[in-house]
Amino acid sequence: GTYINRSREKEKILKNNDEIQIGRIKMVFLSPL
To answer: Which Gene3D superfamilies match (predicted)?
Structure first.
């Protein structure tokens, strides 16, 4: 049970990091326009 919880927490962190990086990429692409 604890292993599944840990993996889910890691997935949440990875998803948050992905969203942050996507946001940065969007900022970089949209800022020159």
So the answer is: 2.60.200.20
